[in-house]
């Protein structure tokens, strides 16, 4: 199908008019099952249950994902130009290399940083967030296994209940961060600023022993 806009050219010598038609972008199949690389641009997907699905490389630009369940989904390398994510559930969703800027994020506690969704319950395993200013972020109940947070500003970040196994926190500003019930086994805290950090029932050792002092 082609969307045609008539473009008239008045040719003085020949005295004739011509029209030109440009090919249109094909409409997305909004009823398609979610899958890797699916085209959902411009679709109303509000309230749909996409939990656990693979939406990596999907085109979600201009889509309405209000209240959509995206828990534990794969969103890596998806396109999200002006996507409406208001109230969407991104807990456990894997992201990275996200293209574009969403129109609305799920809540004030969420942000899109370096192509990753950062917020409570996020799955940021292996993410490279080194050097970023994430001060005051809510990363409670998140998974940050082997994440690179070296030299990042993590002052006052809420890590309560999160898993930072093998995370690189070297040189990071962790002042007044909350590590209540956080797992920091084999995390690298070399040179990190631990001023005023909160430690309660924190797991730092391989045997799972909890402690209320810095690792």
Question: Can I get a quick summary?
Answer:
The protein has 215 residues and is largely without helices or strands.
How does this model look, in words?
- It holds the Pfam family Pentapeptide.
- The chain is low in regular secondary structure and 215 residues long.
- It has two domains: 32-110, Pectate Lyase C-like; 124-215, Pectate Lyase C-like, CATH 2.160.20.80.
- It contains no helices and six strands.
- It has a two-stranded antiparallel sheet with strand order 1-2. A two-stranded antiparallel sheet has the order 3-4.
- A hairpin with a 2-residue loop joins β3 and β4 (116-118).
- The radius of gyration is 23 Å and the shape is elongated.
- The model is unreliable at 1-23 (pLDDT under 50).
Number of helices in the DSSP assignment: 0
**Which spans have pLDDT < 50 for at least 5 consecutive residues?**
1-23
Give the SSE order as H and E letters. EEEEEE
CATH class call of the largest domain: Mainly Beta
Average pLDDT works out at 90
Overall structural class, as computed from helix and strand content, comes to little secondary structure
Q: How does CATH name the architecture of the largest domain? A: 3 Solenoid
């Amino acid at each position: 199908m082609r969307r045609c806009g008539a473009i008239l050219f008045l040719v003085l010598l020949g005295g004739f008019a011509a029209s030109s038609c440009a090919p249109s972008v094909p409409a997305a199949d909004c009823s398609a099952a979610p899958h890797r690389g699916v085209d959902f641009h411009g679709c109303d997907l509000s309230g749909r249950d996409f939990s656990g699905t693979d939406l990596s490389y999907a085109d979600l630009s201009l889509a309405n994902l209000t209240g959509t369940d995206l828990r534990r989904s794969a969103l890596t390398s998806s396109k999200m130009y002006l996507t409406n994510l208001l109230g969407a559930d991104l807990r456990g969703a894997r992201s990275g290399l996200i293209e574009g800027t969403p129109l609305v994020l799920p809540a004030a506690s969420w942000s899109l940083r370096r192509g990753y969704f950062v917020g409570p319950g996020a799955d940021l395993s292996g993410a490279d967030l080194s050097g970023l200013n994430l001060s005051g972020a809510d990363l409670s109940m998140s998974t940050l296994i082997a994440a690179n947070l070296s030299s990042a500003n993590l002052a006052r970040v809420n890590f309560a209940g999160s898993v930072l196994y093998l995370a690189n926190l070297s040189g990071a500003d962790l002042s007044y961060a909350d590590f209540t019930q956080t797992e920091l086994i084999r995390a690298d805290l070399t040179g990190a600023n631990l001023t005023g950090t909160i430690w309660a029932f924190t797991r730092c050792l391989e045997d799972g022993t909890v402690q209320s002092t810095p690792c």
